[in-house]
Amino acid sequence: MSDSPELHEGGSEPPPPAARTRAGALVVRAARWWALLGGVLTLALALMTAASAVSNILTGRPFAADYELVKHIIAIAIFMFLPYCQITGSNVTVDIFTERMSERGKHAMAAFSSLFAVAFSALLLVQMYGGFQSYLRYMEVTPVLRLPLWTAFPPILLSLVLLLLAACVTLAESWRGIHAAAPTTEGRT
Fold it and tell me: From start to end of the chain, where are the E strands?
């Protein structure tokens, strides 16, 4: 068994907290619970949509504005899954490029993708915060429920902060993996 941290590709569960820093373990737990909450929201939307369809069949009247709620809440739920996908390596990968690489090369590729995730999540966070400020200023609402559109932004912004932290954790782990998998040379001090 190697002392280097393993890569977490293909959606495998992240390593136990003992293999991470305390802060990294906290980010993993937060991402896991946040994703579970996103799953609960998605399940609630599925149940509401099914109930609306049954109501439409039985009474000819679906729930008012179910479409508005689905659009609003599913956007939130999607963002809630992103930190967990980052921390577990569940993002899209093309293994054909890395299957013949050394462990150090794989860690370097993981570090590069984590660095890209840090930059992208920071960019998204800044842009979404600007959008949040705009919706607060102009108070746009949904047509039927009159639900303010800005209400989707706080959980999305929290998701992006968690995504940024998760990308930092995976970057640090990949960086440690590069150094742990570095070839040793005899005779050097």
Answer: none
- 170 vs 20, 23, 51, CA distance in Å? 10, 12, 41
Question: Could you tell me the CA-to-CA distances from 59 to 7, 53, 55, 66 in Å, in that order?
Answer: 53, 10, 6, 16
Sequence-separated (6 or more) residues with CB below 8 Å from residue 182: 104
Q: Which domain holds residue 175?
A: 17-92+100-180
**Number of domains the chain is built from:** 1
Q: Are 109 and 101 in contact (CB under 8 A)?
A: yes
Question: Does residue 4 fall inside a structural domain?
Answer: no
- Cβ of 2: how many Cβ atoms within 10 Å? 9
> Would 3 be classed as within a structural domain?
no
The 3-state DSSP class for residue 182 equals coil
**Three-class secondary structure of residue 7 per DSSP:** coil
What is the tens place of the pLDDT at every residue in 87-116?
998 876 667 777 788 888 888 888 888 999
Structure tokens at 54: 């049954």
Tokens of 97: 């490029």
List, for residues 32-59, the tens digit of each pLDDT value.
Answer: 999 999 999 999 999 999 999 999 999 9
Phi and psi at 141, nearest 5°, equal -130, 165
